[in-house]
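Quick review question:
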């Protein structure tokens, strides 16, 4: 059970050195398995545990040990627990235990606790704990990268947000959100606001068909739910009809018109976002975007601010990372552009703590060397600057 869990979690069961194997072979019954895991068989007494544990923990190939005990007729539970506790206090290597049972191992469990040796009811849990320690160790020794400070226009970013707050609005729709993102160096699609169907056709022809159309209203954050988004419109009649349909559906909202937007093709739809955690402050999100966000939930998270190394780890952690590398002959995506977008978002939410939530969905990631485009965005803002690290 422990071996299977280790393999599943990517932990290596190291080969014991020839010196360790020889030492144990001379002192153990022939039935004992000297491969890793070392199986002391059912009649093992405390002395057998002592010999084996001493040799294994001294082996340079071994980084730590999990002692698994299943009580049988010859098992010395309390004595073995004292032995393991003493070993844990002497060695610098992590020592975990899995004494399996209830009443039969209870005294042993108490002894282990007195020596600060964690005991797990099942071996898989001990292996999970060992994996967590290994991950933490790698994190402690991994190279750190400092947050990047890009040249941005914070004053320009705050203009629209301040106006919204003065008007008592907390939801920031696409138009203002895009202005904030552009002020922080994000690339956004060419967009023209059309107030009539004729304006919409003229804008579409100027931008170049096909185009995307999105309802523009201060109080509509989720345009798709209202039927306020149309994609791939490739002739003037469709543009005119879509304008009329969208504005008709949006009656009762604060409609400014319809945004006519260039259609970004050939990219992968990802999501980049932020939410405010009451304890840790701005929490960054990256993952598979578009319509799959809530269904697949393929995302990774970090606490802002982040540096380049952390940004790259965020990208590699999602299950869909292989798609970004290029699958079935597709070109690889511009991962460097995603890294830059994460770093720019990190700076943005640290600079402007009135932002409580932010979603860029989709962030259209183009093939390698072609960048990434923040196609759609929304924000939630608060009057008070409350998205800061708690003290």
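Suggested answer, residue by residue:
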């Amino acid at each position: 059970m422990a071996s299977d869990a280790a393999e599943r979690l990517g932990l290596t069961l190291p080969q014991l050195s020839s010196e360790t194997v020889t030492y144990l072979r001379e002192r153990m019954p022939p039935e004992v398995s000297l491969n890793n895991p070392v199986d002391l068989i059912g009649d093992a007494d405390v002395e057998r545990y002592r010999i084996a544990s001493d040799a294994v923990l001294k082996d340079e190939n071994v980084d730590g040990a999990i002692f698994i005990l299943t009580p049988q007729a010859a098992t010395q539970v309390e004595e073995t627990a004292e032995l393991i506790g003493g070993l844990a206090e002497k060695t610098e290597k992590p020592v975990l235990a899995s004494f399996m049972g209830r009443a039969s191992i209870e005294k042993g469990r108490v002894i282990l606790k007195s020596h600060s040796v964690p005991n797990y009811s099942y071996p898989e849990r001990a292996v999970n704990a060992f994996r967590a320690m290994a991950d933490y160790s790698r994190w402690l020794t991994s190279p750190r990268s400092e947050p990047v400070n890009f040249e941005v226009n914070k004053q320009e970013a705050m203009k629209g947000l301040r106006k919204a707050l003065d008007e008592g609005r907390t939801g920031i729709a696409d138009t203002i959100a895009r202005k904030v993102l552009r002020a922080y160096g994000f690339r956004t699609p060419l967009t023209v606001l059309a107030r009539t169907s004729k304006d919409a056709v003229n804008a579409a022809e100027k931008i170049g068909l096909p185009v995307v159309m999105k309802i523009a209203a201060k109080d509509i954050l989720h345009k798709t739910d209202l039927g306020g988004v149309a994609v791939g419109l490739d002739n003037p009649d469709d543009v005119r009809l879509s304008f009329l349909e969208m504005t008709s559906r949006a009656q009762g909202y604060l409609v400014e018109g319809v945004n006519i937007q260039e259609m970004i093709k050939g990219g992968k739809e990802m999501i980049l976002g932020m939410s405010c955690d009451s304890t840790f402050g701005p929490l960054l999100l990256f993952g598979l975007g578009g319509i799959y966000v809530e269904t697949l939930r393929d995302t990774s998270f970090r606490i802002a601010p982040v540096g380049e190394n952390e940004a790259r780890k965020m990208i590699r952690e999602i299950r869909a990372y292989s798609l970004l590398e290029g699958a079935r002959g597709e070109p690889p995506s511009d991962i460097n552009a995603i890294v830059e977008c994460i770093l720019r978002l990190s700076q943005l939410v640290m600079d402007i703590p009135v932002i409580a939530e932010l979603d860029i969905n989709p962030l259209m990631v183009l093939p390698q060397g072609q960048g990434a485009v923040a196609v759609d965005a929304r924000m939630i803002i608060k009057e008070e600057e409350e998205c800061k690290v708690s003290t």
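Why it works: The chain has three domains: 2-141, 148-187+266-391, 190-263. The mean pLDDT is 92.
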